[in-house]
Structure formats: structure tokens, C-alpha cells
């Protein structure tokens, strides 16, 4: 029975940042995938590499010898009879089409546009002023206790 082989991870250089004073804390880190140049150096195509379970980073341009050696070792194990990792196909991201209208969330204008306001005079200034005047008259609101102002009718 053949054993399953884990696909290698690509190694990329760490960028030189100013906060490190030009010297990064380490020289290499794990990358997103192998560059196209590294895959072609081994003699594979991008689709073939993905079907063998190798991650491919199409944006990378650099070619590192360590990555080529790792790929060669992986291919050698597969040729000896080991079962390759499952295919690593690129993710398909669906973007929703734009609705071509202004976003009107929970603002008063948006609520009115979507018909969320109650019927008739609710949430209009005239209704609000009358409601405030009634509350002042009944001394329900804090405004009634602040000063002795006559109610607005």
C-alpha cells in the first residue's frame, strides 16, 4: 500500500523593513506557494503542479534554489510510488454585482424611502412639535421642569 506524501511549502525571503533597522529577524518565512519559475525549473506546468497538490503563487517572480530542491524531492517520492496530496486548485471568489443605488441604511431618509415609517404624520416635524407641546402641558418631559415656558400651540 502506498503512503501519502505531504506537499512541500515554499520558502520566501522576509522583506527588509525600517522597523528592523534593515536586518529582518529571520531571513526566510513560509510563502503562499511556489513561483511559476520554480515549477518550470522542475519541468511541470502550473495546472500539473496544482493537480499534484502543490500550491502555486502566480504573483511571485523570484526563484529560490531551496524551493526547486524541495519540489524535486517531492516529485521523486511520487515517482517512487507514493500517493500525492489532493489537488490545490485556485479559489473562485464571487463578487456580488453592484445594485446601482445609494446605500440608505437606518437613516431617516432611508427608512422613509423603504417604507419603514409609520403611516400618516408619524416622524414628521409637525407631529413631533405637537407631541412635545402635549408632553410639556402634562409636565411629562424634562423640558417642563427646566423653565416656566408657555406651551407651543
Task: List its salient traits.
6 helices; mainly alpha
Account of the protein in words:
- 33% of the residues lie in helices and 4% in strands.
- It has 153 residues and is mainly alpha-helical.
- The chain folds into 2 domains: 11-79, no CATH class; 108-146, no CATH class.
- Strands 1-2 form a two-stranded antiparallel ribbon.
Short overview:
The protein has helices at 36-42, 46-51, 65-79, 108-113, 125-137, 143-146; strands spanning 11-13, 28-30. With 153 residues, it is mainly alpha-helical. Helix content is 33%, strand content 4%.
Strand line-up of the largest beta sheet: 1-2
What is the N-to-C order of secondary-structure elements (H for helix, E for strand)? EEHHHHHH
Tell me roughly what share of residues is in helical segments: 25-40%
List the domain count as a whole number: 2
Taking the sheet with the most strands, its summary is:
2 strands, antiparallel
Shape: elongated
* Averaged pLDDT: 81
What is the C-alpha radius of gyration, as a whole number of Å?
34 Å
Amino acid at each position: 500500500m502506498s503512503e501519502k506524501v505531504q506537499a512541500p511549502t515554499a520558502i520566501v525571503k522576509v522583506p527588509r523593513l525600517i522597523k528592523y533597522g534593515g536586518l529582518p529577524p529571520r531571513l526566510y518565512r513560509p510563502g503562499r506557494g511556489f513561483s511559476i519559475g520554480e515549477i518550470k525549473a522542475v519541468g511541470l506546468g502550473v495546472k500539473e503542479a496544482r493537480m499534484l497538490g502543490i500550491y502555486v503563487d502566480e504573483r511571485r517572480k523570484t526563484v529560490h534554489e531551496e524551493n526547486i530542491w524541495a519540489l524535486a524531492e517531492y516529485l521523486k517520492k511520487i515517482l517512487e510510488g507514493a500517493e500525492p496530496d489532493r489537488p490545490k486548485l485556485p479559489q473562485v471568489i464571487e463578487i456580488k454585482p453592484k445594485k446601482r443605488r445609494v446605500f440608505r441604511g437606518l437613516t431617516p431618509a432611508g427608512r422613509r424611502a423603504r417604507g419603514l415609517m409609520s403611516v400618516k404624520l408619524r416622524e414628521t416635524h409637525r407631529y413631533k412639535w405637537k407631541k412635545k407641546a402635549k408632553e410639556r402641558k402634562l409636565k411629562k418631559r424634562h423640558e417642563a421642569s427646566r423653565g416656566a415656558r408657555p406651551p407651543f400651540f
